Structures are given as structure tokens and as C-alpha cells.
GMC family oxidoreductase
Amino acid sequence: MAEDRSPDPDADVCIVGAGPAGAIVAARLAEAGYDVVVLDAGPRFDLDDRTDQLDAHIRPGLEGLWGMGGERDAYTSSGPRGYPLNAARVKGVGGSTLHWQGMVMRLHERDFELHSRHGVGVDWPVDYADLRPYYAEAERELSVAGADDNPFAPPREEPFPLPAFPPSHSDAIFAEACESLGLPTHSVPNARNSEPADGASACVGYGTCKPVCPSGAKYTAERHVARAEAAGARVVDRAPVQRLVHDDTGKRIDAAVYATPDGEEHRQDADAVVLACGGVENVRLLLLSASGAHPDGLANSSGAVGRYFMDHCFAGVGGRIDRPTRQNHVGFNTTECHALYDGVDPLPGVKLEFLNYAGPSPVIDALHADDWGDSLLDSLRESYGTHLAVGGLVEQFPRAENRITLDRSTTDDHGNPVPDVQWSIGSETRRAIERANEVQRSILTELGAEIDWVVGPDATGPAYHHMGTTRMGTDSESSVVDPDCRAHDCENLWIAGSSVFPTGGAMNPTLTIAALSCRLADRLDEWL
């Protein structure tokens, strides 16, 4: 039977996007008794297909895990550096948590006060103390496994919901070198079950967390979608929103206009609208909703919609040592070092990551090999088991020229202009990448490793953490949303997700997304 994608006649809230931001807001509002509709551009993915998706990832000739690409997902990148937008985003119920690695940590206190403390970037209109209780809620919402052993982390008020994952074999190797170099190491909070929780098993060690977790131990926003639906919310897949329409005053959103697979367009009216479709698509939808009252795009009287696009840059050094490393037994990080983050020169923060998945996987090598028997075994023994790598996320400061715009020369499957990504890296970020490489080299040199590769400033790529394009602030002339994430220009429009971040730090953003989403749900509950 065809799925009913007709509008809900009595919606209190329409949420655009079923990733972690939208799904958390939907679950909490539905559980509070509101009539909630969620519209997502992509399909639902069946949990029973995850093992088949794993096969599609590792076997030669099979591809297309999450259906990204083609006319639906077209984009351009006209900036100084090409930006591979579709390499890491997912359109579908669950969003990019379907294939993320799952590391979650709080921003540091300095991240909220970058301008006050250091004279760069901007300050957030909220500080760490404002978000501290919501960080604790977010850790519970995501069933975070962790330990309070990070000497650089901001203060916390309660233990993590689940115990931390133990250090891996290669973590223990790195710990020797880091101790000699005076670099404190500590555990990594993870949004994956270290013991059974939320109706899912503990991690069983597939080692393929990115791009797929067949066991369900890693959090995806599907958990909150299920909660929202159990509380009465309606989640409509394959319903890409084309534009938002407003009343005669231009100050109130009347409806989200969305398309369905049968070629029809529908109008979902609601008292409140929440955009939660990511740092690129949030911008695109606002710009596609331009009108006489909002000629430069909806909620864009400041001209800030799309500007200050930030990502985290990758820095890394890898090599081999003459001892077993047991690479790829774990598909996520269990040890990090934040010693290069606060009050160091150069200023951009650096988060060092000790990679458990350095070097080739024997399974993938075997499946792609042309030889057999003893010859294959010899080649696998040669390629596997002695690789080490230290990675790192490096902070980008907000820059107005880094932005998302519309490319009107290229259209998607509905005839709409596609997003254009204009991305570059400033001199301060280059210096921080170079400093990260110095420390990473020193760690591997201390271990006597033969260095095989370095990812430095000329070869760096993004971590696919899209931030800053609808920044929050108290000044409506320089920001898009207020401290409660409500648009300055539209009284019933809210924006959820990392696009509201004024600065990005060097910490993975999803826990902060979840904390802001919990806070936004409270604000909406007060407003409705």
C-alpha cells in the first residue's frame, strides 16, 4: 500500500529534517503532548538491512550504501578548495548519524567566549553554564559511554550514563610515547553502548562504525524517531520541502511546501516550524523561500544566512612499527589528547585522536585480492597488523567569505537551484595544522615508527561537520537566530543543529547539537 503523505490538518509543530536535531525535538515535543509532523527529504532505511549494507561496503563491485548522489543531491563547489559535500552527508530518516563514528564531547568553556578571551571570532550568546544541564540531558538521550578522566574537559555534574570503553591495544602503545613526551591521554566519550541500553546490544566489534553499524549499538537518530512516533508524532519520508511560505506581514511562517514521490506538492501548516536539515540544507531552504518581504531569502535581513561556514580540518601522520598493533579491531577512537586545545599557540584548537583503524583491513584486502591460498595469506600478513596513526581535528574560525549560496545554473530533480559551497582555509588554521603535524610526528618518532604519510595543510580535508551558516546572536544585524534559536525575522521559525554555532571549536559537534535541541524543545514547549 502507498504511504499516506498528505498533510496533517492539526499540526502544532512542523520539523524539517529527521536527523539528531529534528528527531530529538520531535520526540520531546510529542511526549509533551503536541501534534508533531516531521518531513524528511530521504527514505527510511530498514534496520534489518544493515548486514547487507555492510556487505555492500566491503565487497568489490557493490556500492551505494545510503543512496547519495545524482540529481537529487547535486551541488557545486566554487571556492578556493573543492568541497566533497556528498562524501559524508546522508539524506534519510536518521540523517548523518546513520554513518557517523559516534564520538561525542562537550565544547570547552573557551569555545563560548573566543572573542572575549582571545579577540578572534565571536562569543556565543549563551555560555557553558547555560548549556551544562542540557549537556547532561544530551548524554542521557544518546546513552553516552564515558569516564571523567579528561584533565582538559569542562566541569561536569554527574557521571556518564554508561561506562567508558577500555583503551585499545594500540592506545596502550601510544600511551607509552605520550607519557614520555608529557602529553596526557584520556578516554573518549562515545554514543554507543558499552553495555546493553535503549533496547540495543552492547558494541560487538564489527569495526565498521563508519559507514554502518550492523549491531545497532551505535546511536542513530532513528531511536528518537521511534520515540517520537510512539508518542504520536508523524514522520514522513521522501518529502523534500521546497520552500516555506509566510503570511502577509512576512513575520510568521504559515506552512512548509513539500513534494512527494507521486509528483504532487502539499502544504503542511503548523503553529511553529523548525528547520533541522543541516548546515547546508537549512541555508538552501531559507534562500529558496525568498519573497517580496524577504527578497534576500527568508530570515536573512542580516545577510548572514549562509555565511561563516565552518568545518573541522583533518591533520594526521601515519606509519608502521615493528610490533603488533591490532588495527581495525575497533572502528572508533577510544583515546584522545586535548593538550593542544586551550591557551596554546597557535590559537585554533587541536584535538588529537589515536586511530584504532589505521592501515588496511584484512577482510577488505582479502575480498579485493587477485591471489589465493598461501600467496594471499602472505600478502595479508605483510599488509596487516603493524600500522599506527595519529589524527586530529583542527578548529576553523568563522570567516564571512566561507559560505553556502545557491547555484542558479544547476538544478536538482525538482528544478530548484543547488547549494554551492565556498570553502577556504585561513593562515591561522594552517599554522595549527602544522603544529598538530609536529606533535603527531614526535609521537610516532618516539615509538620508532617508519612514517608513511602525512596529511598537512596542503592536503587537509574536511571532517564534514557543517557549522555556522545560520549563526545565533543577540544582534539581529549580524546573526540569524536569537539565543533561543528563534529567527530574528520570523516569530514562529526556529533553527536546530550546528548551523547556529557562532564558533565551532575542535570538538565533534553532535553532543552540542543534541544539547541545543533539548534546550530548543523546552523553549518551544514554553512558547506553544
Summary: The chain has a mean pLDDT of 95.
